[in-house]
């Protein structure tokens, strides 16, 4: 028989995970604060637990898909017996909060893994889905196959905060990129250009960024920022022009000003002749 799984938290992500696990033939027990949110997955074959304690009792593997880690305490706090369970928290939060949660769960007799699912709900369970995990490697190894139904699991290290950091670092890039796209669309929109005409050009820029990444990472890691092709001063002037153009268009100035501040710091530190990768210093130590 496939391993029974309990899944607590039935937002879009939790529901998608339950569906993938059911499709793969796992018995799944679910609990959700708002009980009606379980109706669809129960209709597809999941068992409805009446209380969190019942849900935890039903399976040795307990997955949490919640808005944040505070919700975990609300739900598992009143559950008296976590002994022998493996709790995998697939919710977003900060690394410090995650490390404290790992200790809290372990003090209550369970093992703990952190997970960060890196795709939206419709892609859960597809080939494109992947999950950053961290925590004890033996726990990861024991549950890799079952977690693999949700998305390909990658063990990033023993520190329970590390999966969260990978998750947040990637979403840092993702959210910043999305806002950058919208900002560019607003800038062109001020001249009547529809966003659909901008999208293919923005895609070209994203490709260029992808092209730059390996070399840029090497420069950051080696703390070596040769400015023979581009300099912080040259790019900083462009950052200035984006602020000016945004002002002329009457659109948001916060985003371009934040970027310009990175260049200003590098130039003020006397590093204007270095490549733009030198900005890492001021990002690491903004004061
Ligand atoms: P939602 O915020 O829509 O739902 C999360 C669940 O948390 C709901 O079932 C909700 O219960 C429950 N919940 C929240 N607070 C409490 C509480 N105090 N007590 C009990 N239950 C609580 O989240 P998603 O399903 O969209 O996402 C789940 C996690 O996955 C999040 O951490 C999110 O950042 C992450 N994620 C989301 C992605 C997405 O595209 N949506 C993509 C990748 C990761 P109720 O139904 O009663 O409100």
Automatic annotation (TrEMBL):
Q: Where is the 6-phosphogluconate dehydrogenase NADP-binding domain?
A: 5-152
List keywords of the entry alphabetically.
Answer: Oxidoreductase
Keyword Oxidoreductase on entry: yes
Residue ranges crossing the lipid bilayer per the database entry: none
A UniProt-annotated Pfam family = RedAm-like_C
Against InterPro entries, the record matches this protein to: 3-OH-isobutyrate_DH-rel_CS, 6PGD_dom2, 6PGDH_NADP-bd, HIBADH-related, HIBADH-related_NP60_sf, NAD(P)-bd_dom_sf, RedAm-like_C
Asked whether the UniProt record includes Oxidoreductase among its keywords, one would answer: yes
List the Gene3D superfamilies.
Answer: N-(1-d-carboxylethyl)-l-norvaline Dehydrogenase, domain 2, NAD(P)-binding Rossmann-like Domain
Annotated NADPH-dependent reductive aminase-like C-terminal domain ranges read 159-284
> Per the similarity annotation, which family is this?
Belongs to the HIBADH-related family.
Protein known as: NAD(P)-binding domain-containing protein
Species per Swiss-Prot/TrEMBL record? Saccharopolyspora oryzae
